[in-house]
Write a structure and sequence with these properties.
heterodimer; A: eight-stranded mixed beta sheet; globular; B: alpha/beta; about 45% helix
Chain lengths: ~150, ~325
Amino acid sequence: MAASDPVSAPRMPAASTDLLHGRELVPGADGGRAGVWAEVRLPSYRSLPLSCVVDVEVRIDGGAPITSEALALRLDGVTRRIAELRPLRDVVWWVLDVAELFIPLEHPLAAGEHELSAWVDLLTPYATVGRSVHRHASVATLRLAEAGAEAAR
Amino acid sequence: MTTAPSLQLGVTFHSFTAEWTSYVWSFEDMMANAAQLGGGVEIVGPAHHRGFPRVPEEFVAAFRSSAERHGLTPTSYGSYADEFILFDRGQTADELVEYTIPQLHGAAALGFPVVRLQHNVAEVVERILPTAERLGLRMGYELHAPLDIGSERGSFLIEQVQRIDSPYLGIIPDAGIFARSIRADLLEEGRHAAGLNDAQLQQISALWECEGSRADMEALAQTFPDPERAIDWALHIWGSHGHSDPADLGPIFRHVIHVHGKFYSIVDGDEPNLRYRDLVWALLDNGYTGWISSEYEGEPTDSFQVVAAQQAMIRRYEAEYVAEHGLGSATGA
């Protein structure tokens, strides 16, 4: 057996595995709608097809919920509304990949820090106990840069 | 008389989930660690390579080269049936076959001799068996709680394996079915997850100890403040802690092709909630010569250290067995 040193783990993980992964909001548009993009990860130990992403909801600064009909996910350069994901059994979200969530906004967001609370309902496609959906909640403070806020107006 | 260990110990990379998914360890780091943890490697298809249910040629080449470099033995590939991949319906029989066959080809290309099957493929297993035979792959149903040895579904799988009686179809017991008590952190979680108090946690614990069914658990949960959340939480207990006795492996032992060394914690050198001493002794009693893949599923910690501690525990139980019985049939080679 080849000798090799064990790779010890630092105490803090190098990256979050929560749904809300990044710490910035990036202004942008999707299909003519203005809004912001946030980095997201799949809160799972394994890759899942997009058909398993059954529902997502986001609130910014405790505001009204923004739901799957309005939210969109950009994965591998392709943007799709969350509500359109359920048939996509052949499009796989690789467990280590960061995707981006588009959050449309009716009013521009001020520059600075915003508290996002979000959840995703994931279908566990193999559970021994039968079909099951688990909700993964995530809360994070994300920063919208000054220049970004200007661009989003 | 040799005193060389007879049990072959390895690790499933599922043990390293915390470090892998938070970008602390690369795949190559996990391979380097496996070289220090017994030398057997098990991977989980959709967790450890892109392209699932197919295995990309690029990954095959990199995996084989890395395994050779680190002197590793591929032990078992974790396949998935993913019966509920669609929200509104289950996979059809044809779809389950179509989903499983590429996984078998991928596992064989990677050099795995064994493929872990989920129970959901049982209804189509005779359609995939010829492929496994052609590839020289042994497939094994994972007996994972609540699929205890004596459970309805567990018994169905065992009877099917006995009836088909092929060297290419067996079983893979998960050590979680040999529980003696509920892991403390999971029980405690009931306070936050379902708003339970001491007395209610005690009721759940007592029901589990007297082998209450899932239906009994759901009935008890109706008396709790939030039955739905209580059931969600308690299903984790019923779905990970089984009531099988390691001695129950005896009559079905010739079908055991691999073992998942599931564990939740090591406290003072022992797994407090799982019957590891009895399991190790049962394996040695039956002359087991396959692999045990350490499978850590506890709170995030240094996964390397905790797997090393679990393997030291297995070696200690093995040494105690040898001291009492001699090597006997357990010598293998």
